[in-house]
Design a protein that fits this description.
single chain, 241 residues, mainly alpha, Arc Repressor Mutant, subunit A, Four Helix Bundle (Hemerythrin (Met), subunit A), 2 domains, 12 helices, 2 strands, elongated
C-alpha cells in the first residue's frame, strides 16, 4: 500500500480537531501562523491540506484581512463528482444509475414508513401537492420529483441513503441527459408519488416498498421505450445539472 501523503494526514488531523472543539458551520479556524506552529508543518503542506478540505466542502477559504478557513457542512456534491468520475472511467452508462435506484429506493421507502418524522411527512405531502398544482410546468415537475425522492431518502433515518440519493439524482437528471416528460407522463408520476406518500403516511413498510419499486420500474420502462439511447450513453462528468 502507498503511504498516505503528509497533506492528507494533516487534513485528517484538522477534521479531527474540528470535531474535538465542537466547531459548527461559520466558525473560523485558527489563522495560518497558528496552524503552522500547532501542526509543526510547512506552509505548502498546510495549504495543500486546506485546499483539499475546501474541495470536499469541509471548509471555505475566505480571502483578505480577517479571512482564512471557515467551517462548512459538506453536501453530496463532492460525492456526486467522485461517483461520476469513477463511473466515467469505468465506461458505465446512465442505465447504471437507474438500476442502482431500483435496488435502493424501495428499501428507503420501507424505512421511511417506519421512521419518517411528522415534519418530513408534511414536506413529502407538500411536494406531492406542488407537483399536482404545476403539472403543466416541467421545470417545477423536475424540482418536485427530486425533492420527493430526497425527502424519502433522508426520512429513512439512514444518512448514507440521503447522501447517495442526492448524488445519484444529481448525476441522473433526466432533463440534462435528454429524457423528456410530457404532461401525460407527469400525471402518471404524480399518481405514483401520491401512492407512495399514502403508504408511508399509513406506516405501511411493505406497501411503501412495493409502491416505490413499481414507480422506479415504470420509470425504467418508459425510458427504455422512449429513450434507450440515453440510458445506454456513457456517464460523463459535466453532463448533469
Amino acid at each position: 500500500m502507498r503511504p498516505q501523503k503528509t497533506a492528507m494526514l494533516l487534513a485528517q488531523r484538522i477534521v479531527a480537531d474540528i470535531n474535538r472543539r465542537g466547531n459548527t458551520v461559520g466558525d473560523r479556524l485558527p489563522p495560518e501562523r497558528v496552524m503552522l506552529e500547532e501542526y509543526d508543518i510547512g506552509r505548502g503542506t498546510l495549504r495543500e491540506s486546506l485546499r483539499f478540505l475546501e474541495l470536499q466542502g469541509v471548509i471555505a477559504l475566505k480571502p483578505g484581512p480577517g479571512g482564512g478557513p471557515v467551517v462548512q457542512k459538506p453536501d453530496s456534491a463532492s460525492l456526486a463528482t467522485s461517483l461520476t468520475l469513477l463511473l466515467q472511467f469505468s465506461s458505465a452508462p446512465f442505465r447504471t444509475i437507474a438500476e442502482a435506484r431500483a435496488g435502493l429506493e424501495p428499501m428507503m421507502a420501507q424505512l421511511a414508513a417506519q421512521r419518517m418524522r411528522k415534519d418530513q411527512l408534511a414536506d413529502l405531502k407538500s411536494s406531492v401537492d406542488t407537483m399536482y398544482d404545476n403539472l403543466g410546468d416541467q421545470e417545477i415537475f423536475l424540482e418536485e420529483n427530486k425533492r420527493f425522492h430526497d425527502v424519502i431518502a433522508h426520512g429513512s433515518g439512514n444518512a448514507m441513503f440521503g447522501y447517495l440519493v442526492d448524488a445519484l439524482l444529481g448525476i441522473l437528471d433526466g432533463s440534462a441527459i435528454g429524457i423528456d416528460y410530457p404532461e401525460v407522463r407527469r400525471v402518471a408520476v404524480h399518481k405514483a408519488h401520491l401512492d407512495i406518500y399514502e403508504a408511508i403516511a399509513a406506516n405501511d413498510p411493505a406497501q411503501s416498498a412495493a409502491a416505490m419499486e413499481d414507480h422506479i420500474a415504470q420509470y425504467l420502462k418508459y425510458a427504455e421505450k422512449k429513450f434507450p439511447d440515453v440510458l445506454d450513453a456513457p456517464i460523463v462528468w459535466g453532463v448533469s445539472s
